[in-house]
């Protein structure tokens, strides 16, 4: 089974020491990589898959250890294409991803896949499905597939996904595919962590409407109507094209492609269209803009986390009192927040 999840790794046992500059500041602490993680990084860089799986677990677990790993790997990141594949449940995203993996492997490129399942924290059913469908790629060492579930929390998932993709790129994967079910904002954030977003729908009832409602049309660089062997395909294509025609002219106009992913029909054309989109991004300077925006968003997200952590450490004791006052009608959430912020700033001074 080529699913490189490795939940058994005892991350608690690892302390850190940065191999780049031997020091890494996290808040006010200096973190050092200890030998265990130093060794793990070394094994990872020599191309060891188990080490890659373990390093991903460290990153998923977050905290200073994850930070030190990402810091160490950052200089190894180049501009490997990142392609998001999203859309309503069951439209054939995994099947399409599988076909894209084969396409790129046919060209000798190493591929990394991250399958995120934000919608089923309890059963993990769809993720398991992904594993089964991708299992015949199991013997291919040029492919690295990682499934991620939410563990009950959506917060930070988009960032963690991006960081897991970073690890895969540092491992040497030349194309990164990110599959996620697109039904809400977080899922769209995950998709937007990619340079190119492929939105997949099927002719089944309501998929296009669902995509439009979820705002998927806005993040789409490419639209794919999969299951074109089912009735209603041409109506679906027309509906999508009509929606796209209402967009202002100029720039990239997302093409609408038709596939039968389960038979590999139309999937090479999807890969080619992704390539064209990438060329467009490079030629127009939009790739630089996207990456710039992503770097900015990442810094802001880290800052927000850190600030909130700090505020929470200082004010956790005082929060319940203000909640009670708001409940009793003696304060509004605004006056409460203002008073808490003032208390925080005073403490910090
Ligand atoms: N008829 C038909 N079935 C397809 C096609 N592509 C995929 N399927 C089937 O549709 C079902 C769902 O496919 P998946 O690839 O798991 O879909 P998904 O979008 O990844 O599903 P989730 O990750 O659970 O949201 C599977 O039974 C596939 O075999 C297609 O082109 N035509
Ligand atoms: Mg899937």
Total of helices: 14
Terminal residue distance: 55 Å
Class of the largest domain in CATH? Alpha Beta
Order of helices and strands: EEEHHHEHEHEHEHEHHEHEHHHH
What oligomeric state is this?
A: single chain
Shape: globular
Bound molecules: guanosine-5'-triphosphate, magnesium ion
Lateral arrangement of strands in the main beta sheet:
6-5-7-4-8-9-10
The helical percent reads 40-55%
Radius of gyration: 22 Å
Description:
It contains 14 helices and 10 strands. It is an alpha/beta fold and 349 residues long. The chain has 3 domains: 66 residues, no CATH class; 202 residues, P-loop containing nucleotide triphosphate hydrolases (Rossmann fold); 58 residues, no CATH class. The strands form 2 sheets. Strands 6-5-7-4-8-9-10 form a 7-stranded parallel beta sheet, with helices on both faces. A 3-stranded antiparallel beta sheet has the order 1-3-2. Helix 10 links the parallel strand 9 and strand 10. The protein starts with 15 loop residues before the first strand and ends with a helix. The relative contact order is 0.11. About 9% of the residues have low confidence. The structure holds guanosine-5'-triphosphate and magnesium ion. The site of magnesium ion has 5 residues, from helix 4 and helix 5. The site of magnesium ion (MG) has 5 residues, from helix 4 and helix 5.
